[in-house]
Amino acid sequence: TAPAMSSLAAVREGYERFDPRAYLQNNYVPPRADFSSEDCVVPWKLRCLAETFASGEIRGRTLIDVGSGPTIYQLLSACDHFEEIVATDYLAVNREELQRWARGEPGTFDWSPFIQHVCKIEGRG
Ligand SMILES: C[S@@+](CC[C@H](N)C(=O)[O-])C[C@H]1O[C@@H](n2cnc3c(N)ncnc32)[C@H](O)[C@@H]1O
User: Fold this and answer.
1) What ligand 1 atom has the least distance to the C-alpha of 94?
2) Which UniProt key words apply to this protein (predicted)?
3) Topology of the domain covering 2-121
4) Distance from the CA of 15 to the center of ligand 1, in angstroms?
5) Residues lower than pLDDT 50 in the chain
6) How far is the CA of 77 from the centre of ligand 1 (A)?
């Protein structure tokens, strides 16, 4: 129908303007990523993920993360439970952002505070 088509076009248009760096800056630096406070959204998400994967209820050979965006924090607690993890995203800009990070290119987002926090809540050194 016409309204469905126009809302689809609006979604497509919104996605075409998506800026991974702005998304990371808005959502994955303080105040949202304040590791000194457990009430803060990012440490809360990391704890939920750590508890979920530690429960052993989600396991298998391959984990497919649908809609990874430009982020990897959601996969940190999954690493020990899967042989292979596939990150996916609809947008090329997000896939490219992750590819740049995986290649260790300079100027990519620094996930090390997230990795350190996950090590801490999982009781690792
Ligand atoms: C809310 S973002 C989540 C990003 C990231 N995982 C995070 O936690 O911040 C959802 C992502 O899903 C992607 N997406 C939407 N529909 C999709 C689809 N059908 N297949 C793959 N990715 C999709 C979008 O491009 C967007 O990056």
Assistant:
1) 27
2) Methyltransferase, S-adenosyl-L-methionine, Transferase
3) Rossmann fold (3.40.50)
4) 10
5) none
6) 19
